[in-house]
Every structure is written in structure tokens, then in C-alpha cells.
Specification:
Layout lengths: L11 E8 L16 E8 L4 E6 L1 E2 L6 E2 L2 H12 L3 E4 L2 H14 L11 E3 H8 L7 H8 L4
Parallel strand pairs: 1-6, 6-7
Antiparallel strand pairs: 1-2, 2-3, 4-5
């Protein structure tokens, strides 16, 4: 009889972006659409936080992204079995446009995504939907 391999725990990662504005398409007076200047991640398996931070030109609001960081973020995203976000559609959109700005294409598997904002609307539409409240609910913690 063959031994049964132990079940591998899924690699769960959380991702969030901090962005220079809301509109990722409109260039406005500065000529720069909103882009992420800070990307944070948490890896449950290693219990570690990661972050990528970029300079922002204070006059044009253009984010001075580092291409090598984007490649690292891509590798980190692809290494996840489950990706947990709050408002995943927005974070995906700003990352996709940032990758496009740098001649890259963001690879993203929506089947891996758990969007806490979506579940908040479905499960308890009359409850707060801010990130802190959702994190406490999702983690079953107080």
C-alpha cells in the first residue's frame, strides 16, 4: 500500500494597494492618472508582511514605479493559491494599468480571488464594509 502524502495547506495571501487617487484613466491637470504608490501583502503561510513603496512626483503626481518590483509582485501573486482582497476589482485595475504603463501584462487568476467587499454585500448588506470590520469578520477575530 502506498503511503498517503500529507495534504498541503493552501498558500493564502492578502493584497492591498494605496493609490494617488480614484480615477485610473483620467489624466486631469497633472497628466497622470491615479496609480498605486504602495502595495502591501501578507503571506499566511510564512506569517510575513511584504510591501513595495515607490516615489511620487509631488508636482505631476506620477508614480515612479520600479519595473523589477512589478515582476516581484507578479511572482508573489502567481505563487498564491488564494488571494484575499478588499474591493479586488479596483486593486486589479490599478495594478493592471501600472503593469501596462511599464510594458508588462498582469497575470491574474480570478478563481483564486476572495473579495471581502463582495461577500460583505451578499452576507450582511446592512453592516459596515470597511477593511477593518471585514478583516475581523473574515479572520473570525475580535
Amino acid at each position: 500500500m502506498m503511503p498517503i502524502a500529507p495534504k498541503r495547506e493552501p498558500v493564502r495571501r492578502a493584497l492591498d494597494t494605496e493609490v494617488t487617487g480614484l480615477d485610473i484613466y483620467y489624466k486631469g491637470e497633472t497628466g497622470s492618472p491615479a496609480r498605486p504608490f504602495f502595495v502591501t501583502g501578507f503571506d499566511q503561510q510564512t506569517n510575513s508582511n511584504l510591501f513595495w513603496l515607490w516615489e511620487v512626483d509631488h508636482i505631476t503626481r506620477r508614480v515612479l514605479t520600479v519595473k523589477e518590483d512589478l515582476l516581484e509582485i507578479q511572482k508573489w501573486i502567481l505563487g498564491a493559491d488564494e488571494l484575499i482582497l478588499q474591493n479586488a476589482k479596483y486593486d486589479h485595475s490599478v495594478l493592471r494599468e501600472t503593469f501596462n504603463d511599464n510594458g508588462l501584462e498582469l497575470q491574474w487568476d480570478w478563481d483564486k480571488v476572495h473579495d471581502t467587499l463582495l461577500s460583505a454585500h451578499l452576507i450582511a448588506s446592512n453592516q459596515p464594509k470597511d477593511l477593518t470590520t471585514q478583516a475581523l469578520k473574515y479572520l473570525n477575530s475580535n
